[in-house]
## 1
Amino acid sequence: MTVTDSTRVKLSCRNVWKVYGDNPTSWFTSKDNPANPADLAERIRTCGSIPAAADVSFDVNVGEIFVIMGLSGSGKSTVVRCLSRLVEPTHGEVILDGENLLEKNRKQLIDIRRHKMGMVFQSFGLLPHLTVAENIAFPLRLQGLSKTEQRERAARVIELVGLEGRESSFPRQLSGGQQQRVGIARSLAVEPELWLLDEPFSALDPLIRRQMQDEFLRIQSALKKSIVFITHDFLEALRIADRMMIMRDGMVVQIGTPAELIVNPADDYVAEFTSDVPLVRVLLAGDVMQTGHTVSDDMPRVASTTTVEAILPELATHEGGVAVSDGGNIVGVVTPGSVISALAREAASRESQSAELASRGIAAQS
Amino acid sequence: MTDVTDKPDTTDRPSKARSLTTRSSLVWLAIVAFTLLLLFLRTAAPWLITYPDGWILPITGTMNIAMDWLVAETGEFFRSVSTALEVPMSGVRNLLNWLPWSVTLLLLAITAYAASGWRLAVFTVFAIGYMVVVGLWTESMNSLALVVMSVPLAVFIGFMFGALAFFYPRAERAIISMLDVLQTVPAFAYLLPILLLFGFGAVVGLIASILFAFPPMVRNTLLGLRRVPPEVIESGLMSGATARQLFFLVRVPSALRQILLGINQTTMAAFSMVVIASIIGGSSDVGWEVLSAMRKARFGESLVAGIVIALMAMVMDRITAGFANKDTDDFTKGDGSFFQRHRYLTIAAIGTVVLFALSAVLPMLRVYPEGWEYDPSGPLNTAIDYLIVEYAALIGLIKTWAFFFLMLPMKIGLEQTISPFSWGFEFTTERKLMYAAAAVLATALAWFRWGANGAVVTSLFLVTIFFGITKLPWPAVIAAITFLAWQLAGARMAAGVLACLAFLLLSGVWPQTMLSVYLCGIAVILSFALGTSLGILAAEFNPVSQVLRPICDTLQTMPLFVLLIPFVMIFKIGEFTALLAIMAYATVPAIRYAEHGLRSVSADAVEAADCMGCTRWQLLTRVKIPLAKPVMMLGLNQTIMYGISMLVIAALVGTSGLGQQVYIGLGDADFGVGMTAGIGMAIIAIVADRLTQAWSKKHQAELGITPP
Ligand SMILES: Nc1ncnc2c1ncn2[C@@H]1O[C@H](COP(=O)(O)OP(=O)(O)OP(=O)(O)O)[C@@H](O)[C@H]1O
Ligand SMILES: [Mg+2]
């Protein structure tokens, strides 16, 4: 969605483990433990410890929105807290701008948090005794900036999130959506390069959530941060993700673009996540167009990466079809007929997939 | 004693529960039989009832020797502390006395307004005005000086301990046990060592009130720091906070409300201890005024001074609570002129200057002219005398009835109470046999109706009122309580309780303990019954609740001392007066917990019962009360605790028992005697506390309810 500079890796998470339990490091020092991560995680679990994150590896590119998804308890929050060392990883490496974060001492870490990272929390984490403006300026105050500088920089982000006029309110006087705007503004006040968001919109009701997603995309299109975003709502992920990662029981199940996950789910767990997604939101103009049609001049043009959902209103008024362009060249035409046949094809393949899963399930049981 | 503090760890497995119940019923029957046997043997072996003096260990003597040694070794140090504290003490005292009353009034009224608005400000003006007009200004300021000195120190110490406990779990365990001890040992008991170490004077009151007042601050600080949501901490960390910034800029401000509540409780505790400490005299404060007037039976004066204490308590409570409950946004913040940001300070400063200037011209603004004072105690005395004479018959009747039909039977048993003089007939052997037959019958009926436990409770009760609590054989009492502890909370608890009881016996305070248990027992039973009934009414009928709530609030903020006055006035000095005073205080938690328990019964359960067609009465008795029972049991626990703390104060109006013993120790500066009695009271409190808690926990587990 946003233009990503895929040549530069901003953050790299390599084989990160977080084990809760007695003497967690022993799992990685003694030799007689299984080398295969899945087996090791299983062993740890049977011994009564919790592998909240198990061998998690992924890269986030500069300017990319990387979404982590998974059921409750699958370790999403743990992973994102390992990235900022709010939770100390038991094993592995977290590399930010080429430097291992886990080797930093306390002072360096505080410095990195003050200048390079921002984080947004599900339940906002606002300080109840500070006003909106003071909350937002709080990180700047900790850095010891002058009052005027605090005020200036806070005013900039307040405008960015649209909270003008509420500066002197207290958090409890705001609605949930407004409180999260404060949370977002505070995390942006230090102008971080890496932006971590742990289910930022989950506590909001659907309408507000939708509105906040739009806001979020607008802010990102202006700021181009490198983002790790946690959600358990696939539709939300679909709207914002460049790439996403699905987790289960602390382990990574699949990493890819939303369309890849839908079209080629690694297993039934991933398929389950994507099964409710309306196909029109996933299929792109390029997927449903027909080639070889004649293109008339009054046809509207759309990019091949536009979703079918976005083309539908055009199709309703132009029965002849819509021209699809890719880098300036017309590559095909989308007509109502081509959309219907593509939908039928995909639906049938989903159907057969789930039938296959079901029969496999029966086979496994008998 | 350390054993008792441990949590019980026994949980009966359900399959075993039934056989265990029957087995323990058998043990209980054995205990009843054992008691009766010992009573049968009592003429042959009187030591079964009265623990012989010869068997008492020289515990008090040893304590005295230890204390003497301590005083000799460290006395110098403590006395220099005392001298050092004397300087700021008298500074504050002189300042408060030097300030013109009009200035003090203005400053307090502005504080009250800042805390919670004009209503409190008006009340404050009224309260201060009262102190001025009745001519107790100096005394009030002397008391206030002690509070002003002790509260900041107690708050500081409490905050430090709270923070320490928050960061170091090991320290937490030690600190919490220390608080448990400080809060169960009656206040008077530690007046004594302080007196011996620091010498006489106002400093004793100061130190006692710091010791008494800092525990609530520790608890609230700890609680507040604990309750800061993890995401707030994390957001602080992600903002790049250093450890120090995280504590002072994130944790403490987020916990501020709880910390302010701690300051409120600390202030109230400090004031109540300041009032109590005045019994040792020497600081001419309001507490002393009340007490000395009471001793001279000048109840008018005593009441007038008592009202000063009550008003001071209410003003302090409302002001500190007002600040704690205030929304932060009421403070003008950020922009605005200097005057807007500091409007209260500015008004206060201007007002003070103006009043100082005025009082130079009008001296009555500085020192209230004696001629204008109005002392209502004369007319009050007349009124009280009139009432007492007018209703002498009624008062006498109430007293005799309570005495012959309630207190004496519990104390020395029907056996010795019933006589032609008291009950109007002789307690002949035939009648005693009839009582025995009736008792057996009642026990059988109870068994039939409520099972073995019911039978045990009934028989124990009937035996007790026949022979009297103070005349029960000590081996039987020890056996019964120890077994109860074992049944409720397992072997460790039983061992701890046994050790505690052994201390009471060996140190020679067993008879006094039984006297205290008797008085406190009656008070607790009556308070609990009365309070629970009122609480049920309050939960069912909102108007009742609206009437009761301010009364309960007032009774709870009052220094205990003040509660004695009205009862002493009417019923004179004696055990009955003490009983009423204890009840006045101990009924409050019973009301509170019963109402709270009933009101917080889950709405689903009530709705479900409604759907089944319950009448209101059925709903109450079949659904709400059973579900609210665990909370009510906690109320019983609190009733006992309140009863015990009042018991010590009530000893001022002539009770026998441990409370009196504490006074004797205090009066003769006999550390051993006072301290043993103090420890004795603490033992009663701890044992009662742990047993009721265990009981309520057991009940909750059975109902599958988690404590509130
Ligand atoms: N401090 C802790 N001690 C022990 N176990 C923990 C701790 N924190 C998390 N866990 C465990 O780690 C696992 C992963 O937790 P995590 O909070 O990362 O899940 P999540 O994916 O964020 O779930 P949710 O969607 O509910 O937020 C869970 O099983 C949890 O119980
Ligand atoms: Mg989470």
## 2
Amino acid sequence: MSVVQKAGQSSKWYLPGIVTGLGITLKHMIKNIVSKKQMVTLNYPEEKYEYSSRFKGNHILTVKKDGNIRCTACMLCATNCPAECIKITADENPDPKVEKFPIAYEIDILRCVFCGFCEEACPVDAIRLGPEWQTPGLSGTNFTYDINHLAYRPSLKGGIQSHVDDEERHKEGI
Amino acid sequence: MPKCTINGKEVEVKDGQTIMEAFYKTEEPIAHYCYHPGLSVAGVCRLCICDIEGNPRPQIACNTVVTEGMKVTNKSEKIKDGVKWVLDFHLINHPLDCPICDQAGECGLQEQYMEFGKYDPEMAEHKVKKHKVVDLGPTVVLDSERCVLCSRCVRFTDEVSKTSELGIFNRGDRSEIGTVEGKKLDNKYSLNTVDICPVGALTSKDFRFRQRVWYLKDSETVCNGCSTGCNVKVYFNKEGFFRVKPVYNEKVNGHWMCDEGRDIYKFLNKDARFTTGIVRQNGAQTEMAPGALAKELHKEIKAKKDQVAMVLTGQYTVEEYEAMVSSMVKEFGVTKIYHWVNNKESFDSFDGLLLRGDKNPNTKGLLQVLEKHQIKGVWGDLEAGLKNKSIKTLIVAGPENKAVFDNLESYVKLFSQAEHLVWLGAAKVDSLLSLNNKVSIVPLKTFVEKEGTFVNAAGLEQKFKRATTVVHEALTLTETAILMSGKNLTVPMAQIEKPAFLENKRRQDQVMLENRKKNEFVFKRGSL
Ligand code: SF4
Ligand code: SF4
Ligand code: SF4
Ligand code: SF4
Ligand code: FES
């Protein structure tokens, strides 16, 4: 590809542009000094930004009313995932009302592109993308999140409850 | 031989055949659940309705015999609407189970709904709840809610396996499939009910929840579980093999296969296999590349050819026997070749449907090859030879499917009398790894990893193709024979006539890389 630029007349007069730019910077500086509350930048990492709960960050596996994992191991999320980073191992649950449940659910978070397709595919609101987004780690950190981390990590305070409940569904006759 | 017209296509059927069979023949799509070509006609699902010209009311295709000049269609608006309503009735009490239903992805309801249904359900009543996760027997689990009461499974146990364990109990919307009191669905063909169940009501305990079906690839092959040689499909993905299902072949197995044959996938997976060549000497064990190991055997066999004997099981292909036996006879002059028969007592038994006592897929093929090379060794010679030490090196092409060789251990003990036991085989036999004499183990490929021919008990030659490769290092018996006779393997390469980029094929005006480079990085620096 050749890069060709025409020599225009205006580009020779660069001084007015620089002065305007400096003026804008100065205006913002004064504004920030006068009213600190309206400042748009943060002192990261001491201050952190709270995204809305709809933000698509790290995954959460929701739980049922009894605290068990909601996921039914249908593997629709894994099928829909474009990055192929979800790995589920299903097994038979001793409770016949549950039948199928995951004994292992792993998300390779470094492969995940946070598209939210897993959330969309899930028929029972078992997986959500949460507002959590800062998950750095030192070298050697395990970035493959397992079922316990996804459902019961401390920041979830005992688990997020799913909207879909089988018992309510049965009561309604569906 | 009446002729009829199905959706405008003319077709000739045999006397007494039904419209459904005419539909099958023309390959026109028709919705149906209860009709199965291998069972009697029940006519209970009412989904196969079609219009016959001159007949005011729709008729079911599966139970209406074709008459001369019949004009049948299922493309009319009336029929389409009718099928939709019948499907709606079928689904009134159907649970929302697809996410946890093993049938999802190959389900008759899902398919027919997408093809003929696509309505919004208008049922306001509560769904009828039935029994879920019912343990029918050692192999099958029933979910009554998912059942569409097509009665295929009942007819199967009545007509094919002739065991009559299943029945439909209660009436109306409370009807349920169940086993007769005190009985379990426990016969040698029980898993066929899972195959013919058009929905996920019957599921196989072995396959339950192991994989979603859309993650599986399939490949047609011939079952190596017994000498009937049923045509089967094996289902696999990169994690291994997961299940086996029958494929229709009128001459061999019809629509069915036995339950035992469905276990053949288990010995194909890596954890049940020898994966590298192993040499054991004086209790010390070294691993070796299988090819190098096979090649090393050449010198030994050549030097001691009078003391070499070979044992073959009926689990390899005709081509492999031919290569092995001819290389043994022609290259080395070894004629002490013996046929290993595992279960002598029940070898010739047959249960009248499919199962045969001979648990090897290719005994006939082996005998043919042995006869061709005029080898007449009897088993007693081998035993005597091992005893009086006239056989020092014994080459055994062991069983792939060791589950059917129930007295394998005692045979291993017998073979271990030889000074040097060369074991060619796919299945991992642990007792070999505790022997004290010299043992060389060459891992072989299983029947799904190669192509070849099996000759079944009826003498029918069946060719099959390779499905996939599980153990890449493993050799076939043919390859072992070539290596053992001191030759090298030639890898067939795709023949390219001329190099892909040819000077003279270049376009006249093609810009060469050298020139392109020059063009690309010309900047007009002065004006920046
Ligand atoms: S957000 Fe997208 S990439 Fe990440 S796990 Fe879900 S489906 Fe896969
Ligand atoms: S998270 Fe949802 S979509 Fe994924 S396996 Fe569990 S139930 Fe199915
Ligand atoms: S039988 Fe078919 S439609 Fe019914 S739950 Fe199973 S997959 Fe879904
Ligand atoms: S269990 Fe399956 S095969 Fe048997 S009647 Fe019900 S739907 Fe038909
Ligand atoms: S297929 Fe004809 S009634 Fe079921």
